[in-house]
Amino acid sequence: MRDLSRPSEPCRAVQERMAAETAARTAAAAPAVALSENAGAPSALRAALADAIADYAPEIISLSHDIHAHPEVGYREHHAVAAVADLLRAHGIQPRVGVYDMDTALRAEIGPGAPESAGSAGSASTAGTAGTAGSAASAPAPTIAILAEYDALPGIGHACGHNVMCANSVGAFLALAALALHEDVALPGRIILQTTPAEEPDTAKEILARRGMLDGVDAAIQTHSYAYDLADQTWLGVRRIRAVFTGVAAHAASQPFMGRNALDAASLALAGIGMMRQQILPMDRLHAVVVDGGRVPNVIPERSELNIFVRSKYPETLKDLVGRVEDLLRGAALMTGTGVEIITPEYTNEMPVRTNGPLTAAWVRSQRERGRDPLPTGVVPETIAAGTDFGNVSQRVPGIHPLIRVTDRPDVALHTREMERAAGSPSGDGAAVDGAYGLAAVALDWLYDADFRRAVRADFEAAGGAVDVEHFWG
After folding, report:
1. Residues in domain Peptidase M20 dimerisation (predicted)?
2. Which of 160, 377, 388, 442 is the most interior residue, by most CB within 10 Å?
3. Among 3.30.70.360, 3.10.180.10, 3.30.1050.10, 3.30.420.270, what is the CATH number of 237-343?
4. pLDDT of residue 98
5. Run of H or E including 151
6. Residue 352 carries which DSSP code?
């Protein structure tokens, strides 16, 4: 008989089976599509970029280790933003800290049209205007943003690998700035480094987007740490809901008939969510916790509160599922004679990520140049999908959020202590450097090839074009 003082151990056969299926699909699948050699940035320029990344590799790894050793939760990333700012300043780039009224958000720019305050690498006169982007002098320069996260998880630190992701983005930006400082390398467009706090507890990218983060930005790129190298993977949309049930307090022994039990309403809602899981799409997710359920058992609880996450793969199915959950909450209130207030944020939570095909092909080529081979879509099961506020960016402008392997163990999952250790390990260091090259190479490909930029935009428009994320929920 099992020791009932301890929880049962989850069956690891599930992960083992998934790993075996992934290996079989990998062997059978066609390789991920890579950008052709005659597209994007010239090979000589990519070679110069690789040299710049090699020069910066010790600092890229040092930044990753520093952030890993000083985990900070969302909106409190003061050490991380200072570390990034100091590194940029050490290389002659003056970032702006606290942009868009967010204390731990940082922005730096290089290339034509960048503010003079960005430093010598960021001034238009130094960065130059040569390249295929040229049109009228007054036309805005093509602009690509490299986004960076650096918040940690409460209690288990960088178990999502944001330290590696930050090092990817900052390292890419520094290498591109180094190229711009050479007289024979003129960036034909603008590159923005934008740090985005609080991906874990909030949807800061949405808040930043509403405040102007993406104004004038034509594309955005960012990595994510993982147990595999993946060109593309499903990222679910998320809607966060608070449900507050209000009942009538009464003595639970002498006059229970005079009460209306708010905890009963919460319990019924949880049961309804459990039963609803049978009638939702395989990729949908519903999960909830009781935040408030009363204080003592001899008083009928007059208040209860649920914190609920609703997730779905597509924007339209997310909207439908949220409506069904809200109906369920109202039904629980009707059954118990309680009131219910359904509270949602005033801004849209995580949208599903829309992955741009041509940008993904550029990423695949960059990673093969580093000895990696990102897996194509469908090889790794979708059932391990999560969510990210990069989705809110990718629905506004063309973007990619590829996953980079930080561990040699495919069974290591995000938000675990094993992933936290991997993010600070030698395999995490390798991902920090390779990802930095990848983002920088994608940015160069996009900047130097007008036909490639047009293909990126065409792919975005074919997928539906820009979504009005701000007003998605009406």
Report:
1. 240-331
2. 442
3. 3.30.70.360
4. 98
5. none
6. P
